[in-house]
Amino acid sequence: MMFAEFPEEVATGKRAGNEVAMFHLASEQIYVGAIPAAQFRVATLILLVSDPRYADHGRRIKNFLEERGLSCETESISVGAYDPDSVSDAICTSVRETRAKGCSTEFVVNLTGGTKLMAIGAYKAAESLGLACVYMDTDNQKLRIIRGNLTAPGWSEITQGVGVAELVQLYGGSVTRSRTSSVGTDSELTHVSWEIAESWRNSRGLWKTWFAQIVQKAVSPSDGRWIGGLTRTIEVDNKFVDDVEFIVNRLRLQRLVSSSHSVRGAGRTELTIEFPSAQVADFFTRRGLWLEVCAYEVLRGEIKKHMRADPSIELGCEVSLGEVSNEFDVVAAVDGLLFVVSCKSGKVDQAALTSMDGVSRIGGSHVRRALVAAEPLTYRIHKRAELMGILLVQLDDLLKWRIDPEVYRLFV
């Protein structure tokens, strides 16, 4: 349970029968204000705002809490980002005015977010008034009690249950799931994906030639779904036929193709392939989906194994912020971080990196971006991605991870 390790009086928004109010230093890290507010079930959240960009954070946090069945009022006080005295004065004035009214509200100061000078001012006020202080140490995944007699819950108890859609909404965006979202849970198609990945790597580019022929005139122009029969015939130059037959035979052994045979002609060879089901045939038409499923499996596995969390992860969704939208192949939320992954089965150019840049506006430093590529990457792409803070993962990396996930840690 999310509040299991907190004393009951804190979990219900009260200590010793008193309501709890929390001061929060507003910043781009809105998540670090929302989660402690939910954990303490505060009755009032007071945001100390140093930038107009954060003026809307109170409403977003309030909505976030209400979706969890928590009632919370929010207030905002303007302070200076580099003026610790303005922060200290704001806290002291608010507390003294409340106490002058005879209210027995218990105050907690959240030192996370804001500038270092804001944190200094907030701590100075807490020390002078005897207020409790907490800090969300996201680097080490701990909620630290800086002052006061409070019990810190485990990190997973704080962050669990916050999914992709909720996290993006908290940052002011929205998520639209695509029709491929359920594919990642299909064990048959996961198996297909890894077999395609192996064949892609071993076929020296011939897989793409075969793939192009297999889907020709067999997909719907409106939605890309397979509309041909389960049997398809492709034509291959004789100098490539042994390599292509190797691919087809591998797929047949893995029960991804139920039958195949070839007829040799003058310089050309015809191969007939029959898929075992319409679902598998449809999967083959979605260019690059196999790579997305492999990336999904790896990211999901790393999160569960190394971060010891149950991830909220989506295969195929559109992330929007205002008028800017980006479609990502894999998106995950864990421990307050948003992981976005773009997969490219074709050539990767600078435009592929630039398209990922817009997501940095959602969550700021709390976003991790990665691009998964099936084709070799140039030195220029490597250097550009490094400057942009985008992790590059190549097909060989995914296949090595599948063999030994203990050694190859890719995303996390």
Structural commentary:
The chain has 15 helices and 16 strands. The protein has helices at 8-11, 31-40, 57-66, 84-100, 116-129, 155-159, 164-170, 187-202, 206-215, 241-253, 278-285, 289-306, 350-354, 379-388, 395-403; strands at 14-15, 18-25, 44-49, 73-78, 106-110, 132-137, 142-147, 174-177, 231-237, 259-264, 268-274, 312-321, 324-334, 337-344, 367-373, 390-394. The strands form three sheets. Strands 1, 2, 3, 4, 5, 6 and 7 form a seven-stranded mixed beta sheet that branches. The chain has a six-stranded mixed beta sheet with strand order 8-12-13-14-15-16. The longest helix is centred in the last third of the chain and has 18 residues, at 289-306. The protein is elongated. Mean pLDDT is 80; it is low at 1-17.
Question: Would you kindly provide a brief summary of this structure?
Answer:
The protein is α/β, with parallel strands linked by helices. It has helices at residues 8-11, 31-40, 57-66, 84-100, 116-129, 155-159, 164-170, 187-202, 206-215, 241-253, 278-285, 289-306, 350-354, 379-388, 395-403, and strands spanning 14-15, 18-25, 44-49, 73-78, 106-110, 132-137, 142-147, 174-177, 231-237, 259-264, 268-274, 312-321, 324-334, 337-344, 367-373, 390-394. The protein contains 15 helices and 16 strands.
